[in-house]
Design a protein that fits this description.
158 residues, mainly beta, Immunoglobulin-like, 5-stranded antiparallel beta sheet, 3-stranded antiparallel beta sheet, 1 helix, 8 strands
Length: 158
């Protein structure tokens, strides 16, 4: 008798837990944050390794690129497209290049979220290859005209 009552209860609890886990997470306006920038290579052909922390939930919300922008926010120097979300890999690092700048050229490295854009606050890093990079307080409208510049992502794999 006890096992006849217990088995349906276990099935109900297990079913409820699975349903809760399969629900998509809520989309937020939280930005992707550039946590670290490492650079290797030589002048006019640098490889940037950028570490991001982002509130990825899947293809409905994920960091879809990081980019190197001129210090005045007017020129896109390089953009590294991220082809999928990194829900279970936070923070994560992806490399890209060749970034054609001089060692002393000051740039901003920032990330973009599919669903909420660039964000604002201490989310980016500013610096140069010669002097290193530090946290940068980005304004919401900094370089906003570059959002539609090419290259653009063509989709999200997962």
């Amino acid at each position: 008798m006890f096992s006849q009552i217990l088995l349906p209860a276990i099935i109900f609890v297990s079913s409820f837990a699975c349903q809760q886990d399969s629900k998509p997470s809520a989309i937020t306006s939280d930005p992707a944050i550039v946590q670290e920038v490492k650079v290797s290579g030589s002048e006019s052909s640098y490889t940037f390794a950028v570490t991001l922390k982002s509130p990825d939930t899947g293809c409905e919300q994920y960091a879809n690129w990081w980019e190197v922008v001129s210090a005045d926010g007017k020129s896109l120097i390089y953009r590294r497209i991220l082809g999928h979300s990194h829900v279970n890999e936070q923070p994560f690092t992806r490399s890209g290049g060749a970034v054609a700048i001089a060692a002393d050229t000051e740039v901003i490295v920032r990330a973009h979220m599919y669903s909420s854009g660039y964000g604002e606050g201490l989310i980016a890093m500013k610096g140069s290859v010669a002097n290193g990079f530090i946290a940068y307080d980005a304004a919401l409208d900094f370089g906003s005209s570059l959002e539609n510049a090419d290259p653009q992502p063509t989709g999200c794999a997962f």
